[in-house]
Recover the amino acids of this structure.
């Protein structure tokens, strides 16, 4: 099949307005006397690119770089301030997953409501209804109001509806960041099916390994511009190298980060609790890492993700989050300490980590990737690999 442009951005700029008046009382003089009420800030500045039919494109970059804005421009949720966006094909947007669902309605009723919002006619929903239910695995909860659903159940239903639109273009915004591993695998299996069938996929994720392995192309955004685009592995490596060297200061066991006052909460620094000198552990030492998060206000229902990767090949060894581990995280106004304890099963080598703060189901607030967060040295080691797996012999 001959590739052709299915998405075209030509000199696109997107500006947003920042309201300077916080109360209605402050807003009234501006309303009647024409005083300035807003400040403009630019998210995307004169960017151009093309995506061909059948491409699977990952979009990477720091928070606020315009990744989700690009997806919303493609989905038609918003329009560019300058330039043109051309899209040729039927779109299924997995951006604000389940945004059209009503908490007071049942799962069954929301399938029809959300399906209609996504452009399906009732006959199409009737045809796909059982497939949607089977994919979500929520048959026994179908007639319960979704306000009683857990976040994982909510995501299952919303994803199941969205992927049965039979799209020509699938746009995915970090929707697989939470939820149980079994359903995540099922979602990726479905996305791989779309990929094999020539569906064009745009995928925003902070998981660089996923972008590198799943996508054939990538776009790296930073400071309103496209820094690099092309082969996904080359682009991801470029972003990875930038990420681990910027906004990071080390002092013995403490790693601090630049403040980001635009975020409701952000990672301030991390600290090793039981290794204050050089973050080098013998194989017997437990690893305890304290994550300090600054929050502007009290924030309930926060989800903290922590993953560890080997610096030999950037391969993720293990990842989890507080929701998976059934830990309720509430951030109080000011500084918050969260301690992550790891049994040291690692073999000699250097290990990095990615720490993520989620809000609600899938919205990433802040993320930090740290190169060489700890190192393990064991001169007597005979085994090979990256981790010591408990095992026994029976002969």
């Amino acid at each position: 099949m001959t590739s052709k442009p299915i998405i075209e951005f030509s000199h696109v700029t997107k500006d947003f307005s920042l309201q300077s008046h916080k109360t209605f009382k402050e807003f009234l003089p501006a309303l009647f006397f024409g005083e300035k009420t807003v400040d403009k800030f630019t998210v995307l500045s004169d960017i151009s690119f093309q995506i061909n039919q059948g491409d699977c494109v990952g979009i990477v970059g720091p928070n606020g770089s315009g990744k989700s804005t690009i997806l919303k421009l493609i989905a038609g949720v918003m329009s560019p301030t300058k330039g043109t966006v051309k899209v040729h094909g039927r779109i299924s947007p997995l951006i604000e997953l389940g945004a059209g669902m009503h908490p007071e309605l049942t799962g069954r009723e929301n399938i029809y409501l959300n399906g209609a919002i996504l452009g399906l006619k009732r006959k199409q929903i009737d045809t796909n209804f059982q497939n949607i239910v089977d994919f979500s695995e929520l048959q026994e909860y179908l007639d319960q109001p979704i306000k009683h659903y857990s976040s994982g159940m909510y995501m299952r239903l919303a994803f199941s509806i969205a992927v049965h639109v039979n799209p020509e273009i699938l746009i995915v915004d970090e929707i697989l960041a939470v939820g149980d591993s079994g359903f995540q695998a099922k979602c990726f299996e479905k996305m791989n099916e779309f990929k094999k069938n020539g569906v064009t996929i745009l995928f925003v994720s902070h998981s660089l390994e996923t972008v590198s392995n799943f996508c054939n192309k990538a776009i790296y955004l930073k400071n309103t511009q496209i820094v690099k685009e092309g082969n996904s592995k080359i682009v991801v490596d470029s972003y990875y190298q930038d990420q681990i060297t910027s906004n990071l200061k080390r002092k013995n066991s403490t790693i601090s980060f630049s403040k980001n006052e635009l975020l409701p909460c952000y990672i301030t620094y991390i600290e090793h609790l039981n290794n204050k000198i050089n973050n080098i552990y013998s194989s017997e030492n437990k690893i305890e890492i304290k994550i300090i998060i600054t929050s502007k206000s009290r924030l309930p229902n926060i989800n903290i993700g922590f993953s560890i990767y080997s610096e030999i090949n950037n391969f993720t060894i293990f990842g989890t989050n507080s929701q998976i581990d059934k830990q309720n995280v509430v951030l109080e106004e000011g500084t918050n300490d969260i301690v992550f304890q790891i049994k040291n099963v690692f073999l000699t080598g250097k290990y990095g980590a990615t720490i993520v703060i989620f809000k609600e189901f899938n919205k990433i607030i802040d993320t930090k990737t740290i190169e060489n967060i700890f190192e393990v040295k064991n001169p007597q080691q005979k085994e090979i690999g990256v981790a010591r797996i408990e095992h026994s012999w029976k002969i």
